[in-house]
Amino acid sequence: MERALILNRQKTIRFRWLKQYWPFYVLALPGIAYFITFHYAPMWGLILAFKDYSPFQGLWDSPWVGGDNFRQFFSTPDFFMLLKNTLLISVLNLTVYFPFTILLSIMLNEIRFSAFKRISQTIVYLPHFLSWVVIYGITISFFGPSGVINHYLDQWLGSGAAFLTGNDWFRPLVVFQAIWKDAGWGTIIFLAALAGINPELYEAAKVDGANRFQNIWHITLPGIKSTIVILLLLRLGSSLDSNFMQIFLMSNSLNIDVSNVFDLYVYHVGLEQFNYSFAITVGMFKSVVSLILVLSANYAARLLGEDGIF
Fold it and tell me: Distance between CA atoms of 27 and 197, rounded to whole angstroms?
């Protein structure tokens, strides 16, 4: 009897909550529908990783192969090369691109002239709206065999550099492209977090004689520490996801040893060779590893006293 009363009370509270905040639930419906349609509903297709899928036989009539696709994937000679290339690009993005976004946010926040600040923000946002095809065209114009930089290198040094046709410059160019295109757009969340820092902290530090760098170190960075942790955790969740369009455009037969990553491999195997089951196997492996990374990093962040994402 007491348990029934408690359940009825909980139902009443939930009904009141829903009645009070129903407009917010209505606003959330499009987002919920998007995730259900494009993220959760397609998950039934993961069973193809355990089948030898044939479009002619269909999803249900294709024969089960168990873990053969995973054993084939882990035993392929390309596995360790793909893992190394993907992880190196991910590590470079985490150690170069992500800190640069924070640094750029702080630099924009330190601009005191509002008009110049708005102009600067607009300029650094603009490259985000360019497609990767345009970015690649600009890259060729500057770093191609007959580009501007190689033109001056030929004049000054007598020979150019293999920026786009060798292994040495592929990863630096990929990170440079990512910074130039998306670093400005990535500052939006950090600038919002910086706007939430109490201005009285800076005034008190100024009274105590702190300079600008001391303000950044002791007030600004601690003020956005939780935002940095959350965004870092979210970025770890996609650490094995390379920007396919960027890598696809930058890769060629001369730099394939360093440009062949999981996403590009899935494209070649799944779409060019029509081996859909094997391609889904690779994608499932990436998802599981990303989940483990997020859970581990979130647990470590909570041990250090930070708020995780859950």
Answer: 29
Give the pLDDT band (50/70/90) at residue 127: very high
- Which residue, among 123, 98, 124, 93, has the nearest Cα to 224 in the 3D structure? 98
Quick one: which of 285, 286, 276 has its CA closest to 242? 286
51, β-bridge pairs: 64
Look at the block and give the residue holding tokens 């702190």: 210
Query: Residue 238 carries which DSSP code?
Result: T
Q: Which residues contact 96 (CB under 8 A, 6 or more apart)?
A: 175, 179
CA distances 138 to 134, 141, 183, 280, Å, are 6, 5, 17, 34
Please give the C-alpha separations between residue 71 and each of 68, 74, 221, in angstroms, as whole numbers: 5, 5, 46
Residue that wins the pLDDT comparison between 151 and 138: 138
Query: Is residue 201 scored above 60 in pLDDT?
Result: yes
70 φ/ψ sector (left φ>0, alpha ψ -120 to 50, else beta) = alpha
Residue by residue, DSSP assigns 6-49 as: HHHHHHHHHHHHHHHSHHHHHHHHHHHHHHIIIIIGGGGGGGGG
Model confidence band, residue 160 (pLDDT cutoffs 50, 70, 90): confident
**pLDDT score of 5 more than 60:** no
The pTM score is: 0.83
Distance of CA 259 to the CA centre of its chain: 18
Assigned token pair, 111:
């601009």
CB 245 within 8 Å of CB 264: no
